[in-house]
Amino acid sequence: MIPDPIGWRLRRLAVMTPVEIGSRSFRWLRDRLRSALWAAGVLPSDYDPGDPRNRRVIKGGGRHVVWDRGSFLLANPLPEIRTVDQERFDPCVDAAEATLRGGWCPLFGLASIPIREADDWHRDPLGAGKWPREFAPLINHRDSTRGGARFVWELHRLPQLALLGRAYCATGDRRFALGVAEVLRSWLDANPPETGIAWQSPLELAIRMIAMLHAADLIAGSGAISEELGRELGVCAAHHGAAIARSLSRGSSANNHTIGEAAGLIVLGACLPSLRSAENWIDRGTRTLRRELSRQFARDGSGREQAPHYQAFATGFVLQALLALRRAGRPAPAFLEEHLRRSARFLVELVVEGNYAIEPGDSDDGVVHGLGGSPDRSLAETAQAAAFASGSTEVLPPALRAQIFPSTRWFLNPIRFPPGFKGSCGESSISPDAGWIVFRGGTPRKTLFFDAGPHGLAPLDAHAHADALSFALYVDGDEVVVDPGTYRYHSGGVWRDRFRSTAAHATIEIDGVDQSRIAGPFLWRSRARARITECHLGGDLELVSAEHDGYQGLRDPVWHRRSVLHLGPGRFLIYDTIDCEREHDLRLAFPLPAGAKEAHQHDAIPEEGLAVFIATSTGAGIDMLLGASFPARVEVDEGSISRRFGEREAAPLLRVTGRIEGSARLFTYFAGAAAEEEVGDLAHHGSWMPVLRRDGTPAPHSVGLRIDDPSGTRWTALVAPGVPGRSLELGPLRFSGVAASLFEPRDGGRPTIESLAGSATQLGAVSVEEFEGARFGPPENQEVQP
Question: Containing H/E element for 208?
């Protein structure tokens, strides 16, 4: 693979302003000048505090940096942790013992990598590549021939420090504290200032320094960090801070990296005031954080990158900055607490059944600290810690009040939850700026996530996916229809694009083309613009409609509109309309979790609909009814999902395919959960029915769904996308897009639109001239099956 092809460079330049191009040109010249100085030995080559080249970075040549004092960032509730959380520490102690024996470094959940000599710090941990020990700013981290930079960076985040430090706290065994000192010594010897891939990214420098400060807190008082090592760590911290300040991510690259780097400056300045630039770093970090939090986060608390993992990641940095200022006895700006409060309120809405989280967009499983639990729980842990730090625990739902997570104890040492919960537990919710809707209801508990939001954070939209109007479905916290995940970044090759593609998500693909066109691993040629057109949440019927323009660039422009209706407890109807004039190939995807099974009776979808049963490996099951206004087929392919960064597994991909001629409609109805032996039963008590005018002709843009539940209750839904220039009224609401009504006919006959006004469970009168006198069912000469 040729790194950085000219086409990518030109597209990258196209999203930069003239000011940014000038700034990058200056950095390019500066880095090459510094490279010459580095090669000539003018720049520091080690951490010796006595070296004249290092005397300018710390007051008094490093004598005043007290690294063994502790209380930099952590509350250190050792007695309570040893008693209350002992059982959680047992696996940690076992892993720490293995680390001491073999020098192992945990790498995500994929493997443990031995670090026994200096070169081990520069090898690709999952391949044969090796990164050069050259001047760091000139190393091309996109060069996938050397391996994945993200994986080797994980080694340099020093995750084993937290592991060993926690084991020391749990046991008091000084061997673990000495293990921390040994890891620090090994890293310092192998990674001189500004040398190698470890120094290439300022974000990585910020994460590493936070890890070192956490480690110092964890083993405080053990005497494991000698005076000499402490002085060298002080010089190391000074070089980290200077490198971060020199290379802050700016312009089109300003995303969660900038937030992490700014927080890193605040942490270094507040925790190590002996560093000569400490006050400048705090001031610059604070100004940068204020600007970037305002730019990158919306009023509803959502991150504009449209990637919840990176929202939690950025919020974790804000938490560290706040803790550093508090521990140092310095006033913390009010905007830090306000961000934590808003972010916590937003993140809790994405937590499913306590721990599992809805995470569309990119995720690399990265964490700001190694003091948490499973990566699956990172959103829940971040939300809880942010709520405690900002004094807003009332936003935490009962699922996040069942226990205080270990990371919350480490940072804040709360004894118990304050009383009071003012959230909307169990109710559907919308984040209007993010364009994300979470429907909840039914027994067993069902959660449906609908993405009708912006593509990402302009101008790069680096962590976005081509997933406009996609959805994910959960039953009792188990995945049924999934978001595919991320897999890898630069080293992912074609898989990077596949996991971001429209075809990999639960939405519609037209003519084999993505809604948003990919131009590079973190770059896009075009972006679909999605918007919510109707929204009604609360009550017995909930409805959200949205559309996107991602296919307006086709020779025959196409609009995709999708409505999601919550038809009572845990029943969902998804109604797709495709508006166009010519022929197109259409594919509607339902990515399923690994190990899931599906069953259906026919490959072609009949007029009355096709029943499909899905059963997951965890035992969750659900009935679907598929319908289409055009000849469509159902097929199951082998797809791929990624539940950990760097890990890919096969999973079934259910698809509805067909060729449409002009506008088309598709219907997907999710009924209640069912046992596997009930597959196909839905076909006997549910079917799609046309909506007919008084003269018996089909009413345009309308469809009815008849459902006879096993309980015997007969429910019918009317779905009527509005005719251009017309609107429908549903009670006090007026819809220009979609209207729906639920009712229970009293006489068992075919209800007309007028009869809805007298139905027992009527939600509101529906009135529009186009549909007056309309009724459900096939033509008069066809019998309606009971």
Answer: helix 202-218
pLDDT at 678: 44
Rounded CA separation 369/313 (Å)? 10
709: helix, coil or strand? coil
- Total Cβ atoms within 10 A of residue 91: 9
Q: Report CA torsion sign: 258, 262, 265, 271.
A: negative
Task: Please provide residue 471's backbone torsions phi and psi, each rounded to the nearest 5 degrees.
Answer: -145, 165
If you search the block for the tokens 């007056």, which residue do you land on? 772
Looking at residue 49, its amino acid is P
What residues does each domain of the chain span? 1-37, 58-247, 250-425, 432-682, 690-786
Cβ–Cβ contacts within 10 Å for residue 145, how many? Answer: 12
| Inter-residue contact 23 to 251 (CB < 8 Å) | yes
CB-based contact 469:480 (threshold 8 Å): no
Q: How many whole angstroms separate alpha carbon 676 and alpha carbon 111?
A: 36
Paired with 718 in beta bridges are 704, 741
Quote the CA–CA distance of 469 and 563 in Å, as a whole number.
9
State the 10-residue block means of pLDDT for the chain, 786 residues long: 65 89 94 93 82 69 59 64 49 82 72 78 83 93 86 91 89 92 94 94 96 92 89 91 94 93 96 90 97 96 95 96 94 96 94 79 90 77 93 86 83 75 70 93 86 94 96 90 93 92 98 95 94 82 90 96 84 90 96 90 82 81 87 94 92 96 89 50 54 64 60 54 43 46 48 37 38 50 34
CA-to-CA separations, 464 to 3, 360, 502, 587, 644, in angstroms, rounded? 22, 9, 11, 21, 17
Q: Which residues contact 585 (CB under 8 A, 6 or more apart)?
A: 510, 511, 512, 657, 658, 659
- Single-letter amino acid, residue 754: E
| Tokens encoding 246 | 């020199």
Q: What's at 283, amino acid-wise?
A: D
φ, ψ of residue 343 to 5 degrees: the values are -65, -40
Give the integer Cα–Cα distance in Å for 259 and 404: 26
Architecture label for domain 250-425: Alpha/alpha barrel (1.50)
8 Å CB contact between 396 and 416: no
Q: Are 304 and 298 in contact (CB under 8 A)?
A: yes
pLDDT the model gives residue 642: 94
CA–CA distance, 712 with 715 (Å, rounded to integer): 10
Residues in contact with 742: Cβ distance below 8 Å, sequence separation at least 6, in sequence order: 540, 541, 567, 568, 715, 716, 717, 761, 763
Helices (H) and strands (E) in the chain, counts: 17, 31
Contacts of 691 (CB under 8 A, 6+ apart): 698, 699, 702, 703, 704, 718, 720, 771, 774, 775, 776
The strand pair at 351-352 and 356-357 is best described as: antiparallel
Separation in Å, CA 751 to CA 635, 683, 686: 36, 22, 17
List all residues 6 or more positions away from 724 whose beta carbon is below 8 Å from its beta carbon. Answer: none
Task: Go through the chain and tell me how many residues it has.
Answer: 786
Phi/psi for 532 (5° steps) reads -85, 125
3-state secondary structure of 551: strand
CATH architecture of 432-682: Distorted Sandwich (2.70)
Which residue do the tokens 């971001």 mark? Answer: 500
C-alpha radius of gyration, the chain, whole number: 29
Q: HSE (CB half, 13 Å, CA atoms) of 525?
A: 10
pTM of the full structure = 0.89
CA 565, CA 474: separation in Å to the nearest integer? Answer: 16
The CA-atom distances, in angstroms, between 380 and each of 154, 352, 383, 408 are: 22, 9, 5, 11
CB of 234 within 8 A of CB of 67?
A: yes
H-helix segments, 606-719: 682-685
pLDDT at 758: 32
